[in-house]
């Protein structure tokens, strides 16, 4: 009987620990993904990793989404300071500890280096409604595109926001007459999915796969002769991105 009770106590304790872990896991869209990060890793999670480490003062390099030696050194410093295994591998334990240490961090809070060398975003720059509008734009413009193509669309909006050639608000950029097909055909009002939100957060966090593009078009459907005169940077999915 005592043995059975002991098993029950152990089981209940384990369930409490699991519940506690779920309670502290971040719920919002700009939390780490499940991929283990190490030297050679790339993408949005590495941008977030570098941003959080920079927020703590451990990472001093360019936030570029590439896990190189500067990121490795910052990760190892963080792990050492927080009494963790110093191996430079960012798995679940390191991610959770880093998240707990940077709860006040938000994407774009630390100035991030873009290709032009200027900050992409500053603290508290974008409201929830602006992030949602960006996600609606991504969903309407790039639904069916590869993930990097979704991030690219969000990056173009942010690049326009930094350019003196365009309005200086998210809504002004998006609703500028003739700027986006999704506005013209009403797809801007579709409910954005989780992937669209994540693409927006990756763009805000500094990932610009377009190389500072201000325009993009689908060569199969474009009717404007002017857009073909713009200097082309690269093609991502069905879109050609230009200056």
Features:
3 strands, mainly alpha, 243 residues, elongated
Mean pLDDT: 81
Q: Name the helix and strand elements from N-terminus to C-terminus, one letter apiece.
A: HHHHHHHHHEEE
Percentage beta strand: under 5%
Major β-sheet strand ordering = 1-3-2
The number of distinct helices, counting runs of at least 4 residues, comes to: 9
Quick structural overview:
With 243 residues, the chain is mainly alpha-helical. The chain has nine helices and three strands, in the order H-H-H-H-H-H-H-H-H-E-E-E.
Structure, described:
The chain is mainly alpha-helical. It is 46% helix and 5% strand. The chain has helices at 2-24, 44-56, 69-81, 92-101, 128-142, 147-162, 170-174, 181-185, 194-204; strands spanning 215-217, 232-236, 239-242. Strands 1-3-2 form a 3-stranded antiparallel β-sheet, with helices on one face. A hairpin with a 2-residue loop joins β2 (232-236) and β3 (239-242). It is elongated, with a radius of gyration of 21 Å. The relative contact order is 0.12.
Secondary-structure map:
Blueprint: H1 2-24, H2 44-56, H3 69-81, H4 92-101, H5 128-142, H6 147-162, H7 170-174, H8 181-185, H9 194-204, E1 215-217, E2 232-236, E3 239-242
Antiparallel strand pairs: 1-3, 2-3
Helix pairs in contact: 2-4, 2-9, 5-6, 5-9, 6-9
């Amino acid at each position: 009987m005592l043995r059975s009770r002991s098993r029950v106590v152990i089981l209940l304790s384990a369930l409490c620990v699991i519940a506690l872990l779920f309670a502290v896991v971040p719920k919002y869209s700009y939390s780490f993904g499940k991929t283990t990060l190490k030297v050679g890793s790339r993408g949005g999670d590495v941008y977030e990793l570098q941003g959080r480490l920079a927020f703590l003062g451990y990472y001093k390099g360019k936030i570029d989404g590439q896990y190189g030696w500067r990121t490795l050194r910052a990760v190892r410093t963080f792990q050492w300071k927080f009494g963790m295994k110093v191996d430079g591998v960012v798995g679940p334990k390191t991610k959770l500890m880093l998240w707990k240490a940077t709860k006040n961090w938000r994407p774009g809070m630390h100035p991030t280096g873009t290709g032009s060398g200027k900050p992409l975003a500053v603290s508290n720059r974008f409201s929830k409604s602006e992030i949602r509008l960006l996600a609606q734009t991504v969903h309407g413009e790039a639904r069916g595109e590869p993930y990097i193509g979704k991030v690219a669309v969000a990056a173009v909006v942010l690049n326009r926001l930094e350019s003196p050639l365009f309005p200086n608000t998210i809504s002004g950029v998006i609703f500028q007459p003739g700027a986006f097909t999704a506005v013209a055909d009403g797809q801007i009002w579709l409910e954005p999915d989780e992937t669209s939100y994540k693409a927006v957060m990756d763009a805000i966090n500094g990932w610009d796969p377009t190389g500072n593009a201000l325009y993009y078009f689908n060569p199969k459907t474009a009717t404007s002769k002017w857009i073909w005169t713009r200097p082309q940077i690269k093609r991502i999915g069905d879109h050609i991105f230009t200056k």
